[in-house]
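User: Here's a chain of 357 residues. Predict its fold as tokens.
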Amino acid sequence: MNQPKERKEDLWGYLASAGRPVVLYGTGNGADKILDQLILRNIPVSGVFASSGFVRDRSFRGFPVETYDALKERFPDMIVLICFGTSLPDVLANIDRIAKECETYAPDVPVYGDSLFDKAFYEAHQEELSAVRGFLEDDISRDTFDRVISYKLTGNYLLLRPCERPSEEIDLGAYNGDTVLFYSGIFPQIRSILAVEPDKRNFRKLTETVRSHFPSDVSDPSQGSFGKASVSCIRALISDRDGTAFVPRNRGRGVHETDSSEKGEELTAVSLVTLLQNQKADLIKMDVEGNERKALEGGREVLLRDKTDLIVSCYHRSEDLFSLPLFIKEIVPEYKVYMRHHPHLLCWETEFIFTCR
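Assistant: Prediction complete.
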């Protein structure tokens, strides 16, 4: 495999000084963000390619969308930037094939927010990052933390491979019900699950999953039961308050809260305190598209009262690596903190785990 070069500067500094053709693999939202960063740094782009099934008579930001082979023939020494995330084995195998022939990177750009995790960002937040690393409980967590930071700075996605772990309640950001099925399968003693999902299409898939796997006699199709477990599906946006939230109509990857002035779609917003009322949650899994901080602020009373086990995603915003664990430890100092990264290209599927057990 054509290993990325060891270096001290971040990926963006390296690309600016490499003096070689840079090409983008992918044409989605990630490619937009990466291209914007390249333009900002006056780094020229020589071409754009897509997987063979997606190469059609089309263009992206003024570039014709070509095949990898066509660009490789024209630019034998090109540097490839992967502009999307994936966990699909066939796509990962194709990326590994490309990386055997070309120097290949997967730049880390935030899913939400404007802060890029580059050298300047790292140096500005070294104190907070050091504090988080200092309270991680095990060697796996510390190794994962170090590798995630190194990947974010260098774009070398191979650094994440050694720390990948298989995926092992309330489910916030329940998506299509996959997490509900997973946890009910490995923890048959679960008696009740609240699955919260704001996106209309995902919520429909979620309720279909619940109906098909958790048959129930209740008339409400958004509820189901399986053995001793019952599942309630709630369409809402978890936030720091109750009321109305606004989300962009053209939201791309997921539902996230925005300013009402953007005239986005209205959704019900609910805090964890209201969602749970006086119920005690044993586990809260939170992957809420960059709304994690607001969700935690709205659940402060719950965390203080129950010291609930938490699984909190930390890959949506660059500052999530330090702001989320520092905030949670401020609320419940006795939490033990772990970090895990699950198989996925880019730093998606990375999470902090908090427990008082």
